[in-house]
Every structure is written in C-alpha cells, then in structure tokens.
C-alpha cells in the first residue's frame, strides 16, 4: 500500500538496519489517516503504536536484504524480493504480540491472507509492501523519486514489480509509471477496496 503525489525529484539512498526506526516513523505518519489503516486499527488512540509494531519487523527484514529506499528522514519505501510462491511477511499468529497489536490479530490475519491470495505466482518479482512520505513533505515528488529508483533497480534485475494501494491518488501516480491493474481489488469487509497493480520489467 502506497501514499504520495509527485512534483519534484530528490536524492534517494539505500537504508540499512540503522534506518529502520526512521523508516517506521515515516510510514506511521504517512498512513495514520489512510482508510485501510483506519480499518485495520480503528481506535484513534492506539493507531500510532499499532502501526509501529506492524511495520517494524517488515522494515527490519527489508533493510537487512537491501530493499529499503529512503529520501532523508522524509520518505521511505520497502521493496521485498518474492519467489512467486507468495510473500514472506510477519506471521502475527505465531508470535507474542504487544497487547495493543494482539487485539487486532483477526483483522491482521484477514488482511494478509486476502492480499497474499492476489500475489503473482510462478515468477520472481519485487513487492513494494509500503511506500510513504511524511505529510509535511508530500506533493514534492519524493514518492516519485523513490519509485523511479526502485523501478530502475527492478529493470536492471529483470524483475516485475507488484504493489497494492487503497489511495486513488497513489494509483494515478503508479499508472503514470507504467503500472496496470493486476486483478480484482481486495475487498475488505466493511472497509475500503485495495487495488492491486503490476508493472513488468522493462525490456
């Protein structure tokens, strides 16, 4: 899922394990008011803490694998290599969760199951699990800068790119970068639709 608009190019760098906390903070701010986040964590008082616990293991895994892209302390994206047999995100049913997050295990599991069912099969690709820009820095092209860098790396490796978004604005951004609808949207019970998008590797 992704959140941003584009107008201005800025420098992009690889983030490492030391950048995980910053990346989690960026994503937490970027998605605080996003509709699917509000569905997942409906309590306003708990949403910030829940998001931080939610993003932390995934951001740590991606950073260790070299898939964290950042622009200063303003924007971050998580690019995860996938074998084509489904994603390997955190299994929230198999670990002891903080009380705030444990209360949402059912919705977390439902969301990850629904998203996983839509993923491409039988091929290797990159999954942009999250891309976000701090609210005060949105509209400056930081999301597009992250996207261009990540797509260039994907093309160099001969990999397609898959992602999901619940934002109409983000979908328009991705379509400008060559993405097309991959399959039927993910329809959350009493929640927003999440669009799945695919961009094949450039030849």
UniProtKB/TrEMBL annotation:
The keyword Acyltransferase applies. Keywords: Acyltransferase, Transferase. The keyword Transferase applies. Its EC number is 2.3.1.189. It is an enzyme of class 2 (transferase). CDD domains: NAT_SF. One of its GO terms (molecular function) is mycothiol synthase activity. Transmembrane segments: none annotated. This is Mycothiol acetyltransferase. It comes from Actinoalloteichus hoggarensis. The gene is mshD3.
